Amino acid sequence: MATERDITLSQADYLRILIHGTTAFELLRTGLELELFERLETDGGLDVPGVATALGVPEQPARVLLLGLAGLRLIELREGRYVNTELVRAKLLRAAPRYLGALIDVQDRVINAAMGELSEAVRKGTNVGLRHIDGPGSTLYERLGAHPELQHVFYANMGDASRKSIGQFLDAYDLSDARRVLDLGGGDGSNSIALATRYPGLEATVFDQGSVVELAAQRLSDPDLRRRIRFHAGDLFTGELPGGHDIILVFHIFEIWSLERNVELLRRCRAALAEGGRCLVYNFVSDDAGTGPLSAGFLSAYFLTLASGEGMAYSAADMERAVLAAGFTRAERHDGFGFSHALVVGHR
């Protein structure tokens, strides 16, 4: 049933967005780059000459940009002035709590060029789109180490996604009995910071590549958090996982790898856990039937074409099976999270 939050399109317009998707993205990105949405919000709407003056551009290209964004239902015309829609106010203004700027940046700077290789990636079953980012390594994560600016853009988006999804996890799953948490592939430390903030007695170790944990350590300024959060550089599959932890977080990692490699990683987690410990697998997921949601389809194409060449947004059922195959005695599944997430807990 349609609600005021739905955008209804004809089949013809739906196909137009599919065919002209690159143009749609560039209209959105240009609106952000020129700070059009902020200008409209600050001024309570602007006409074409007002937009041209505010952006410092000629009126003709201003008309082109406004026409495209209005066609995409991002802005609308009211009494001769263009104004932002509620969608823009919620997610495309920089002050909005769910601002998507970091996602748009990584899509623009890192992902889009590689996605033209999807058909070859499907044929060959590997991440051929990685050729667009030079450097050592066979995954995006390794190659970003040779590109500090792109690495910053990438982990800014990962941190933003983590901060948006960790809140619902903390509200739904109790970790008050945890003492020491190992945050595998912890990126910029967002998950560990959120956990240590929620639970003042908890200590956390962020485990990731050397160049990544350096970025994470630089973010940490609070003296108490600096005392309770440690950083450990290493490789997920070849480095020794630090022991003595009663919780291991596998957050936004499962989707990177094949199911076989995930079982291998989870076996390593089980071996590193204290007796009675838990391994928490929390990820974007598809439905069990493999028919959606749309975000899972987009993410899966990205993992195949660029990130690793072997991952996808798996279902929670896939996660359950992998946890049990790794030797955990019990798999506890939690559905119903927003942002297309699910949690599976493996009990040692």
Automatic annotation (TrEMBL):
Keyword Translocase assigned = no
Coiled-coil zones: none
* Residue intervals of the O-methyltransferase C-terminal domain: 117-328
User: Any idea which GO molecular function terms this record carries?
Assistant: O-methyltransferase activity
* Record's keyword terms, sorted: Methyltransferase, S-adenosyl-L-methionine, Transferase
A GO BP entry: methylation
The stretch of residues making up the signal peptide is: none
Cross-referenced Pfam families, in alphabetical order? Methyltransf_2
What InterPro entries does this protein map onto?
COMT-like (IPR016461), COMT_C (IPR001077), SAM-dependent_MTases_sf (IPR029063), WH-like_DNA-bd_sf (IPR036388), WH_DNA-bd_sf (IPR036390)
Source species, domain of life: Bacteria
Keyword Transport present in the record's keywords: the answer is: no
Q: What is this protein called?
A: SAM-dependent methyltransferase
Organism of this sequence: Actinoplanes auranticolor
